[in-house]
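Marked as duplicate of an earlier ticket. Keeping the data here for the record.
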Amino acid sequence: MDNAAQGVDALKQKITQAQLPQEIQEKLSNALRFPGTGAEFEKIISFVEFVLSLPFNKSSQDILDLVRAKQVLDKNHYGIQVVKDRILEYLSVLILNSKNPNPAGFHAPILAFIGLVGTGKTSIAYSIAESLGRPIIRIPFGGMGDPRQLRGVSRIQPEAEPGQIMKALKSTGVNNPVILLDEIDRVAEEGRVNIMGVLVELLDPQQNHAFVDHYLDFPFNLSKVMFIATANNTTNIATAVMDRIEPIEMPAYSDEEKLIIGKNYLLPKAIREAGLDQKSVIIDEGLWIQIIRPLGFDAGIRSLARTVQGIIRKIAREVVEGKPGPFRITVENLTGYLPA
């Protein structure tokens, strides 16, 4: 028996052992009955292997602990109490429904964080996933112009491949991950209508239990997935999508809030990531306003994070070059440490 035949037999055995829905098991078995040769053979094998890698029945166990969730949110985010309260209310409903399942079927709202660049939309989604103990994967929508990126390309096409939704499930290995639909307002104009149509199907509980990826060509149940969306604004989001999400406005940060975030969150994190000792870097208190506003007001903290990281990288270089610490940033030497 040649290697190809052995490979097919091994896959047939995996299909038999896998706990697949009957119709999918038959679909895979039929595909391997006459797999063809050459490139066609490779395409069939890739298809079967991809389907076998999907988590049809594997779910992660949620950590449904409101106290822990609050601790995670407070650890990762300063301020934005209104946003945190909305998240904790959302998680409270999940907890209650896990204890007393609704016979009519419970469908959690799709949270959508709306706000300016750098206000923490993406990071808050990661904190929700952390609080629940679920894996999270991000799908960027910025510049997306083809709905096939979400829905996949049919196997009869030369460029056949699964869409990003099914790739996300394979990557996380569970059927209930958090999938972050990032910047859904920034899709390319030419593909907006069709992409919004796919989004409606993903976010609608009446439809997402039977989502069809064109590569797979069979329905997959996405009802256990927790979708979270972000957008800079809602102008370019279709009304049908807006009807299926719960928008939460992300507030702009004041200078006072940025000062605390910079000192207590961003600076320790940058020092830690650079491999430096926390006590080796000292920034004089009066300098923070210049670090916060090197180029004027910014609603978010992304530019502040880049500035702090730039300062720490310059110090890291001095350490490697043999200069002794601790390193004190003062009004006299600040300009030399600020990123160009």
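See parent ticket for discussion. The chain has 14 helices and nine strands.
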